[in-house]
Amino acid sequence: MGLLSILRLSGAGSNDNSTGKEPDEGKKKTQRIIEIVILVLLATATVASAWCVYEASAWGNVQMENVGAIALLQAQSIRLTDDDNTLRTIDVTMFLSWVQAASENQTGRMVFLEDRFRDEFRPAFNEWLQSANPGEIPPGTPFSSPGYSLKTSRELDQLKLNMSESLDNVRQANANSDSYILTTVFGALVLFFAGVAGKWKWPVITLIFIGIAIIFLVVVLQRIFTLPVIIT
Which of 142, 122, 144, 121 is nearest to 132 (CA)? Predict the structure, then answer.
């Protein structure tokens, strides 16, 4: 009876060890799953942050290129404005001289000045002159006529459109760059919460930090897939 009792006790002890191992194995399995989730979070956030840094830099380059284009257009605009003002001054001076000659009935001087009108001014002048009876000076000036159009003025208008477009590009590129930088900040938060999640002994806190990291990662991925992309 004494031997039988010992065997029973030993058998009971072995059963207790097996039941004790099962919770340990479950705990280790849960820990491995948590480690894998943290690893995926860290890897995804790292790649996403690197992509955001690249895109922010690329959009920054686009912004600088358009700023340089605006500076060049401004220099061209200054030159064209000077040329435009010079040509208009010439036309006004010639026209005022013609009006003075016409008011004094100096026909020869009038013909002399008309022969020296610039090609861009002559159509507007003829249109203006034909608006009155022969021998009379029409009211107003040719400069208000739609026919008075200078090449420099048209080029200035085009330059203004180009400058406006480049300015819009600068604003858009700056906004995109800022958006990617902000996304990088969210990526850094993912790295922080995922990195410290495995440092806690309490599973509840670990799960809370992992949940926060997942939320920020969703925000990061959502922004990446909706923001405009440029590859240089």
Answer: 142
CA neighbor of 37 nearest in space, from 192, 195, 183: 195
Backbone angles phi, psi at 199, to 5 degrees: -90, -10
Amino acid identity of residue 196, one-letter, is V
The answer on pLDDT for 192 being more than 90 is: yes
- pTM reported for the whole predicted model: 0.71
Enumerate residues 6+ apart whose C-beta is below 8 A from 34: 197, 198, 206, 210
**pLDDT exceeds cutoff 60 at 14:** no
pLDDT tier for residue 22 given thresholds of 50, 70 and 90 = low
pLDDT value for 138: 84
